[in-house]
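Task card 7
Instruction: Convert sequence to structure tokens.
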Amino acid sequence: MAYLRNAWYVAAWSNEIGDGLFSRTILGESIVFFRDKQNDGRVIAARNLCPHRFAPLDRGKLIDGTLECAYHGLRFNTQGKCVFNPDGDGRLPAGAKLTIFPVVERWKAAWIWMGDPAKADASTIPDYPFLDTPEWHPVCGLLKMRTNYRYVIDNLLDVAHVRMVHPTSGIYCESLSKGKTEINRDPNGAIWVKRLGVNGAPPPLFAGMWQAAGFGELPTHMDHWADARWDTPSLILNHVGIAVHGQPRESGLELRNTHFVTPETETTTLYFWSTSRTFALDDTDLDRSVLAGTEHLFVDEDAVMLNAVQEAMGDQDFWALKPALLQADIGPVAARRALDKLIADEQREVQIPAKAAISEAVST
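Output:
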């Protein structure tokens, strides 16, 4: 399967990477992570494969800032260079070098670049300041979805499925369901998908939060918005909120949600989610409720349907099946087509130098 490799993906929440070795599969490749304690604890990411006999490096250990392979004891520094060989005369074998991937920690997450290291520009990581500012309180989690990551993106940008798939989660809103989907494109390639429900009953999920924010009883006639921003390759930001009908959004309540969708394999996805709020910042009971509610929504409802979609689709091409489209599909379709183009362009860039090299070799 072709992935967009010259892009930033979330590999882990920062607090997942501690003092030892930590491994995870990203874009079908096993990667080992560890912190360089001699350099401010920055995260190092290497292909989880010793270049000698191809043992998984996450079975080894860290010694004096180096990564020791558990099979023959070769040690590698944070640049991937072999610096110690305990066998025989201690000669360092030619070619004993690890593949090191660029990693940046930002917004409570470790971001990895799986493509050309020379193109890794940390400034292209989108902004999610509410994840790391005292005015907002985030609740974060990680779920493994047994479906292709493209279906997860489709699902997150699609309002139409909520009526059928989430009957017990309290997020369905009749007025939002009847709203018109609008789409806007930012100059940087981000795609905004927006929908507004006007003068209707708000989703039941907001009742407890409305009270926790100090507003009292939840009114029956409210405006409800759900704005989603898709960023390359599989990052989604949500602004979701309610306000008394006719009043400005600032007078109501809004949650900022992130959905960092990282392909693990062709049929499994790492889904890093967060929900941030500006009220009840120290309410641990509310934190637990948000965590349980979010996991119920995705594990017991979304995942059940998405697993079924994956099983039904298998390895069939999405567009080849000529999918029927609803109004709510305008967002998922726009994101799919944008990502398809980026992948195709990247594939051409890779193929052109390869063809040139073959042509030169043949001519000589």
